Amino acid sequence: MSDDAFTILLYLGAAWLAGSLIGLERSFHGRPAGFRTHALVCAASALLMLVSTHQAQWVDPSLPMSSIRADPTRMAQGIMTGIGFLGAGVIFKEGLTVHGLTTAASIWMTSALGILFGVGFMFPAVVATVATLLTLSLFRRVESLMPSELFADHELCYPIDAVEEEDQVRRMITEHGCKVRTMSYRLSNNGQLFHYYMVLQTHDRKNIARLATHLRQSSTILEYHLSPTGG
């Protein structure tokens, strides 16, 4: 095996391994872009960079070397622009919550790692791979220990002849450690049902569970919807 072939194999293998490790972490946590996606993104980025840096091996040998213009930075720009479409595909909005941002960022980072491996910039590539794995795994635990605000979409449905006043509803929610950030109203079923729509804020997920237990025991509430959107 020639030195160039070994170098290409080393760079591609290192990129594939780095992408696989990051993808394993994403797959373990059930994310939409996991092991195979990250492995392919990293390997593809490295492969495209190798195409740019090894032009002399695939262009017409009859051409003079002076006519070959290798510009890996332009290839890197194209890769990072294109990978944005793949990252955007894993981002979706549900209620007040945006899902997939971390996975999109990991795909973008994986592509950057592939570029580094593809040009043979091994030291920063390895360091960045380790840093990425630590960020995805260790920082998850740090985030869980940090105090943060939790929001929830909340809906209450009453029969029109047994609707609780807004002040009563707000007081009930406050008693369970939550705040009403926004509130709107709706009639349905030809005016037979009255709905309160709210966004709740709290600092403890257990407050949401306690509120749900209270609502479940209510004799006047026909239906309720309580969906945490963060935390």
UniProtKB/TrEMBL annotation:
A GO cellular component entry from the record: plasma membrane
Pfam families found in the cross-reference section: MgtC
InterPro entries for this protein: MgtC/SapB/SrpB/YhiD_fam (IPR003416), MgtC_SapB_SrpB_YhiD_N (IPR049177)
Transmembrane segment boundaries: 6-24, 36-55, 75-92, 113-139
Keyword Oxidoreductase among record annotations: no
Membrane topology category: Multi-pass membrane protein
Protein localization: Cell inner membrane; Cell membrane
Main localization, broad class: membrane
Coiled coil: none
Start and end residues of each MgtC/SapB/SrpB/YhiD N-terminal domain: 12-144
Key words of the record: Cell inner membrane, Cell membrane, Membrane, Transmembrane, Transmembrane helix
Family: Belongs to the MgtC/SapB family.
Name the record gives this protein: Protein MgtC
Organism name: Vreelandella subglaciescola
